[in-house]
Amino acid sequence: MFLVAILFTLFALSCLFVAVATYMLYRYEHQSQLEEFFDSPEAATKAIHKAVFSAFKAQFFCFSIYLYGTLLQYRQKHTPQLPKRPDTPIIMVHGLFHNSSAWLLYKRWLARYGLTNTASFYYSSFKSFEEISQELDAYMKQFFSRYPAAKPVLVGHSMGGLLLRNWLSTASQAKQTAGVVTLGAPMHGSKLAIFSALSLGRQLEFNGALIKQIEQQEQTAHPLDIPCHAFFSPLDNMVLPQKSVSTPPEHWHTHKTKPVSHLAMLIDKSIANNVAHTITTFTKK
């Protein structure tokens, strides 16, 4: 019991350390711009303090249920499942260092809007962006092979949103998508990528080679007439600078959420409600 208490304490302290450290970097990066984001320096300080707590809470929750996602993927033999029906299918893609448990709360909240036909595409963060992109493309081809007339809604958090953006610029079936929603996607990468322990994280370098490649693909691809919506928090502590998360491609719609941390976007009910409302606008067409 004593050992469990020690491990629990170390886990909680680790979550707190990451929350504090990332917001120290956030403040350092945006010190001269905080008045653009908030009414006053005092309001910015107060919002950052609240965001630190939201980061701690979100990290504690997400890391705690990570094992659940691992066990779920093991039961599915590490093969992401497709939506069960062709009507209003929603395919969700998690971010870096996460798994299918990322969408545990979202699936419950979306169900209240009648959006129950959801499925999670998941991947290993030990692979490269190119390998994961190929897996996502194969998954989507399998989806369209099973449901040729379906129009899926794609939802991605963090790097999951960047994977979807990359898929849209390369896949011939992208035009059949009903709509896309991203949460905290590093549209131009992140300066924190240099601290990643894995090469996949380092590929997300701010304005790095991967970002330039995706932008070049978008310039040569045929324009897509589908709604794309990027949700971002003004206090995202993992995507630095802030303009990276708030500046998607020109044809995208942006939605500034309440000031919460990067991971907290996955556990905030009000943000999920706004996402669900956006998805219903796709499905009404």
What would your notes on this structure say?
It is a single chain. With 285 residues, the chain is of the alpha/beta class. It folds into 2 domains: 2-64; 70-283, Rossmann fold. It is 49% helix and 9% strand. It contains 11 helices and 6 strands. Strands 2-1-3-4-5-6 form a 6-stranded parallel beta sheet, sandwiched between helices.
Q: How does the SSE layout of this entry go?
A:
Layout: H1 2-30, H2 34-37, H3 41-64, H4 66-75, E1 90-93, H5 104-111, E2 118-121, H6 129-146, E3 153-157, H7 159-168, E4 179-183, H8 199-202, H9 209-220, E5 228-232, H10 242-246, E6 253-256, H11 269-283
Parallel strand pairs: 1-2, 1-3, 3-4, 4-5, 5-6
Helix pairs in contact: 1-3, 5-11
What spatial order of strands do you see in the largest sheet?
A: 2-1-3-4-5-6
Average pLDDT reading:
92
Q: Beta-strand level of the residues, as a percent range?
A: 5-15%
Helix proportion? 40-55%
Count of DSSP-assigned helices: 11
Largest sheet: 6 strands, parallel
Shape: globular
Outline the low-pLDDT stretches.
none
What is the number of E strands?
6
Q: Tell me the domain tally.
A: 2
- Rounded Rg: 18 Å
* CATH 2nd-level architecture of the largest domain: 3-Layer(aba) Sandwich
Reported by name, the CATH topology of the largest domain is: Rossmann fold
Which CATH first-tier class of the largest domain would you pick? Answer: Alpha Beta
The CATH superfamily of the largest domain bears the name Alpha/Beta hydrolase fold, catalytic domain
Oligomer category? single chain
Judged by helices, strands and strand pairing, the structural class is alpha/beta
Task: Tell me the series of helices and strands, N- to C-terminal.
Answer: HHHHEHEHEHEHHEHEH
